[in-house]
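We modelled each protein-ligand pair independently. The example shown here corresponds to the pyridoxal-5'-phosphate entry; the chain sequence is given first, followed by the ligand as SMILES.
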Amino acid sequence: MNHPVQVTRSSMPGFDEYIEEIKELWETQWLTNMGVKHTRLEVELARYLNTSNVALFANGHLALEYIIAALNLKGEVITTPFTFASTTHAIVRNGLTPIFCDINPDDYTIQTEYLESLITEKTSAIIPVHVYGNVCNVKEIERIAKKYKLKVIYDAAHAFGVTVNGEGVANFGDASMFSFHATKVFNTIEGGAITCADSSISELLNTYKNFGITGPETVKYIGGNAKMNEFQAAMGICNLRNVDQEIKKREKNYNRYVEHLSEMKGIKLSLPPKNTKSNFAYLPVVFDGFSRSRNEIFEELKKQNIFARKYFYPLTNSLECYQGKFIPNHTPVAEYIAENVLTLPLYADLNLEDVDKICAIIKTHHQNLQLIIPR
Ligand SMILES: *Cc1c(COP(=O)(O)O)cnc(C)c1O
């Protein structure tokens, strides 16, 4: 391909649309600390995500660190290794021990059948991930959490706008974290949010993210600084106006990939179930009995200027920083998926022709090898 194709490209509003949105900031000269843009974005997101309490943050990672602190978790937290480093780091940076649970072979979310066997008297919470926007088995997680009195925080960084049977993902568990990083379906350049059922928790979070300040002369908590500024919020207001359209464009590309790849032997897709409205955030492909390995296809695409990503490889429980640190729970399904998965380029402004070319390259390497190996 003449132009390089990256795995993702940020959605942006029109230049004039953003300029119009930030003009007001030159009048008020109020740049951060819960200004008008921040307040407005909070309200609009609550409406969009169909939930009651939204606390905005400077980024998704800090949002996750702060909700873990706000829920006062202790001891062990059961989580998935098949995720971005952030999920595990947020647990460890709070002084907690991650206990790794294996994943489902079909949607790569946490395998709920193993959860109960991992619960000890030290367990305080479960932090599953709606990985690639695939929604976890929330019913079963809720049942187990209730039975053992555990908190549930969903890493919903990939699941912006996803609904199951019409219910927004923001309403599952005690809290959910969304990331509004530039590479996500909805972005505020950098940014994130916590949604939670209990308004006292979101109030606490809003205090924590501003040094624990509760009044002009009172600092009640040992908080930090994780506030979203007005320029980020303004970007969010603009992007939220356009997000449905962006998701529709993603869907077109997603469906084109599915047309090409769904019947190809040795390629496994994880299509959203019928009751789920997807956001088409990612296109993970698992090479499972394919004639070429994931790494070979990755290199072949790279030669042609196409930059797919090995999301999520390595697993967080085998990251260098965690070597020898935690019980190396065997998670064979996660290991297998991490070794064989490739996330193909998918974003709103990707051309259908580019999708065709990417799939053609995969197909070519598939067929070449079939010719070599007699059957
Ligand atoms: C992006 C991401 C995060 C972190 O979000 P940031 O906004 O980049 O800090 C956490 N978890 C997962 C699964 C992510 O993909």
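The pocket of pyridoxal-5'-phosphate is lined by residues 59-61, 83-84, 86-87, 129, 155, 157-158, 179, 181, 192 (CB under 6 Å).
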